[in-house]
Automatic annotation (TrEMBL):
InterPro entries: Hexapep, LpxD, Trimer_LpxA-like_sf, UDP_GlcNAc_AcTrfase_non-rep. GO terms for biological process: lipid A biosynthetic process. Residues 25-91 form the UDP-3-O-[3-hydroxymyristoyl] glucosamine N-acyltransferase non-repeat region domain. Keywords: Acyltransferase, Lipid A biosynthesis, Lipid biosynthesis, Lipid metabolism, Repeat, Transferase. Its EC number is 2.3.1.191. This is UDP-3-O-(3-hydroxymyristoyl)glucosamine N-acyltransferase. One of its GO terms (cellular component) is membrane. GO terms for molecular function: N-acyltransferase activity; UDP-3-O-[(3R)-3-hydroxyacyl]-glucosamine N-acyltransferase activity. It comes from the Bacteria. It comes from Christiangramia sabulilitoris. It holds the Pfam family Hexapep.
Length: 310
């Protein structure tokens, strides 16, 4: 998320009421999660396990809960609760906006686009040309839809990220200020849910086709010409490269990359990166021919055991 203008380190520290280390005029241009930070961004870290990663990231302002040596060319915001203060910044720069009409007056709708009854189009949404938005679709604030996109009934674009911090009193939600971006020639089936990014974009690439009842988590990027079948669940911060096929009921954990040309057979449980142009099956998943050989071997075990016991 980039701010509407450049802020100083002192200004940001005042917004969250915390100390800072560095030049008070150090430039601050935005805030992002660690996987999408660029110079000028704030990133937060609240666990020693991730201090080194945050301090060494592309972010130049680190919101941290301990006074540490400040890397050259960077600045620190010292907070007793970085998670809370990151939320303060999101609330300040991306506050919730009420939508007073089914189609917000700030939405931009391209020529030839049809929006069926009971669809809700949020604030600052941009929809391209020749799209078809079916009944009861909900497109949240700031979403970007390309040309020739079809979205079927009941689908939600731009729900909040499923991202919580466990505290003694319960779960504390990390606020979402990002977007969903749908490229040209995408079709999305009914009753799908595509969460907005926390600070960045959740993206569906050009020409990809999604079946019904699919969940895609925050900040995930789906490449071009991908095919995703029903009941697939993809966690946040996943990268699915181009021309990937994902069959029904596949589950993909966060922070993995599905390489170009991968095929995931039905009910795969994907826990790590895949190799290009390879087909996988099973839970835990593996290359399909290897898994089938393992399964065939397991089926022979009762006969082997019976012969041993003779």
């Amino acid at each position: 998320m980039k701010f509407p203008r450049q802020y100083s380190l002192k200004e940001i520290a005042s917004l969250v009421d915390c100390k800072f280390v560095g030049d008070q005029d150090f430039p601050v241009q935005g805030m992002n999660e660690i996987h999408v930070v660029t110079p000028g961004d704030i990133v937060f870290v609240d666990h020693p396990k991730y201090y080194e990663k945050a301090l060494g990231s592309a972010a130049t302002i680190i919101l941290i809960n301990k006074e540490v040596a400040c890397p050259d060319g960077k600045a620190l915001l010292i907070s007793d609760d970085p998670f809370r203060d990151f939320n303060k910044l999101t609330r300040h720069f991306k506050p919730f906006q009420v939508t007073l009409k089914s189609i917000s007056e700030s939405a931009e709708i391209g020529e030839g686009t049809v929006i069926q009854p009971n669809a809700v189009i949020g604030n600052n949404v941009k929809i391209g040309k020749n799209c078809l938005i079916h009944a009861n679709v909900n497109i949240g604030d700031d979403c970007i839809i390309g040309d020739n996109v079809i979205i079927h009934a009941g689908t939600v674009l731009g729900a909040d990220a499923f991202y919580y911090k466990k505290r003694e009193e319960g779960f504390d939600k990390l606020l979402s200020g990002g977007r969903v971006v749908i490229k040209d020639n995408v079709e999305i089936g009914s009753n799908c849910s595509i969460d907005r990014g926390v600070t960045g974009d959740t993206t569906i690439g050009k020409g990809s086709k999604l079946d019904n009842l699919i969940q895609i988590g925050h900040d995930t990027v789906i490449g071009e010409k991908c095919l995703i079948a029903s009941q697939v669940g993809i966690a946040g911060c996943v990268v699915v490269e181009n021309e990937v096929t994902i069959w029904g009921q596949v589950g993909i954990r966060s922070d993995v990359t599905i390489a170009t040309g991968t095929v995931l057979m039905a009910q795969c449980g994907v826990s790590k990166d895949t190799s290009p142009n390879t087909t996988y099956w099973g839970t835990p998943f593996g290359e399909v021919r290897t898994k089938l050989k393992e399964y065939a071997a397991v089926k022979q075990l009762p006969g082997i055991i019976k012969n041993i016991n003779k």
